[in-house]
Amino acid sequence: MAKRSKTKLVSTLLAATLILAACGGSSSAPSDNSSNGNTGNAPGGTQTTQQQSGSTQPVKIEFWFSVGGNARKWIEEASQRFNSEQNEVQVDAIYQGDYYTNHQKVATAISAGAAPAMTMIEVASIPFFADNGVLADINTLASPEDLARYLPGLMKETQWDGQTISIPFNRSVPILYLNKTILEQEGLDPEGPKTWEELRQYAEKLVKRAPDGTVERWGFLTPVDQWFFEAMLYQAGGRVYSDDGKKVVVNEEPGQQALQFWVDLIDDGLMEMPQGEKYNAWDVTTNALTTGKAAMIYSTTGRLKSHVNGGAENGYEITTAFLPAGPKGYATPTGGANIAILNVVPREQQEAAWKFLKWLTSDENAASFAQATGYIPITQGAVDMMADYFKEFPQARTAVEFLQYAQSRPQAPSYNEAQEILVKYLQKAVLKEATVKQALDDAAALMQSAM
């Protein structure tokens, strides 16, 4: 793909930054405790003394990342370990806030000529940066054997115009979390529902009301988020965009079917009207599960440890299962983020970034990161190494097995903006501010304009 001119690129990135700021946030799937801690350094770029011929000084690079909690701790400790084990590359790993915040900072830093050598990018944002021609082709840095290590189900969002422009890292899928303790108390199969209809039947038996009708426990909860909607859309046989990528089709029958299912659960008193927005909505749902206020929820495998440990603290056993199958069967989008190397930094920094990225995603490190966080082990070697761990902690295997039904998230440069539009109109439908059809028709029209 031909590179855009520098003037065009800068204006495009700055415009996108303003659009994102107007959106007011991102509803991308967060990590466990994803916004923990401060927002890190403001964009300042990589301050590098380039390695001269014959110099023994290491190449200094910055790695900007956007996950908190256990994931942030692991990344910071791993970066320090890498620096201590060799003297060719010195990595400064900088937490830059959540996915949305990091996206803004990277776009601004590129425009200012002060970009990091490598950065974490949420998978729905990758097409935006790829279309602007700022991501290095990792095929020129890595061998085919290097790239063959990663799980095929996670490589769908790494390709652009014949290039490999990112590598899977903190990757996830949405899964069903079950309060097994409550399910068994109510005489239900603790393996959980397998279809949409069974989900409804379970929710009917699990909802608990006080004598005055007040709901003490919801049967099912989910954040009204485009990621979970994408899953149900795929399960109904739908897509966000047409096969040629030119038309928004989210408002067709499968989309209406998926959104109507949520609306009906709320109307029938089985699912609470979702509380909070964006990351707050995820936190509300997590808290409801771990405190017994909800018996089943949709959430990310990236919050696995916090869900399981939080439930245990309250005397509950939390288990996991595939999202129930829709009319067309099982399906799921993948989520989380990849790591990209930026081609706007000198070649030696790109090569240094690959050395670190290859090390960071080794089988041993991939297994260690997965066990520390709940994210999917990204290589087959890591999966094999975790065999004993899966026996001891079977909840962690669910996401790996669910990858067989994985479908790519929409790969359109405008989807980072379009998903904000979509979630806004999903909320309008569940809040009764619009009918399901009207909400999706309005969303589709605005998403089409965004293209």
Order the strands across the largest sheet as they lie in space: 2-1-3-13-6
Q: Could you tell me the number of beta strands?
A: 14
Mean pLDDT: 87
CATH class category label of the largest domain:
Alpha Beta
Quote the distance from N terminus to C terminus. Answer: 19 Å
Shape: globular
Class based on secondary structure composition and strand pairing: alpha/beta
User: What helical percentage do the residues reach?
Assistant: 40-55%
CATH topology of the largest domain: D-Maltodextrin-Binding Protein, domain 2
Q: Regions with pLDDT < 50 over 5+ consecutive residues?
A: 1-8, 14-53
Mind summarizing the main beta sheet? 5 strands, mixed
Strand content: 5-15%
Specify the CATH homologous superfamily of the largest domain.
Answer: Periplasmic binding protein-like II
CATH architecture annotation of the largest domain? 3-Layer(aba) Sandwich
From the alpha carbons, calculate the radius of gyration and give it in angstroms: 22 Å
SS field, number of helical segments: 18
Write the layout of secondary structure elements.
Blueprint: H1 6-23, E1 59-65, H2 69-85, E2 89-95, H3 99-111, E3 118-122, H4 126-131, H5 144-147, E4 159-160, E5 163-164, E6 167-172, E7 174-179, H6 180-185, H7 196-206, E8 208-209, E9 215-217, H8 226-235, H9 253-267, H10 279-290, E10 296-300, H11 304-313, E11 318-321, E12 332-333, E13 335-341, H12 347-360, H13 363-373, H14 380-385, H15 387-392, H16 397-402, E14 406-407, H17 415-430, H18 436-450
Helix pairs in contact: 1-3, 2-13, 8-9, 10-11, 17-18
Region (Disordered): 27-57
GO molecular function: maltose binding
Protein name: ABC transporter substrate-binding protein
